[in-house]
Amino acid sequence: MAKAGPTLEYETARREVRRGLEELWRFLKARLAPEALAAAVRHRLLAIAADVDRLRESDGHDRWREEVRSISIFQQVCGG
């Protein structure tokens, strides 16, 4: 029996954290001169992103996400 997927709240929060980090990175890159964007800031943002990715990898829902992705692709291809 396949493991149930994550709750909607969990998956939404995980995606929002990841998206927020990516938006913060783009904002900082656009607003700060390259030399002002300290390696420590970049390193910390990458570390947080890695933590979020590790959360995704360890939560046991990768199979569910792949199934959902496959269904979505199938619907797009078949016009569903």
Please tag this protein with its features.
single chain; about 80 residues; mainly alpha; 3 helices; elongated
Task: Give structural notes.
- This protein is mostly helical.
- It has one domain.
- The chain is 76% helix and 0% strand.
- The protein contains three helices and no strands.
- It has helices at 8-31, 39-58, 62-78.
- Helix 1 (8-31) runs antiparallel to helix 2 (39-58).
Question: What would a concise description of this structure say?
Answer:
The chain is an all-alpha fold. It has one domain (8-78). It has three helices and no strands.
Layout of helices and strands:
Blueprint: H1 8-31, H2 39-58, H3 62-78
Helix pairs in contact: 1-2
Low-confidence stretches: none
Relative helix content: over 70%
Ends: how far apart?
26 Å
Number of helices: 3
Tell me the Rg in angstroms: 17 Å
User: What is the count of distinct domains?
Assistant: 1
Shape: elongated
Major sheet size, sense and barrel closure:
none
Query: Would you report the number of β strands?
Result: 0
H/E element sequence? HHH
Structural class: mainly alpha
- Give the percentage of residues in beta strands: under 5%
Q: Report the average pLDDT across residues.
A: 80
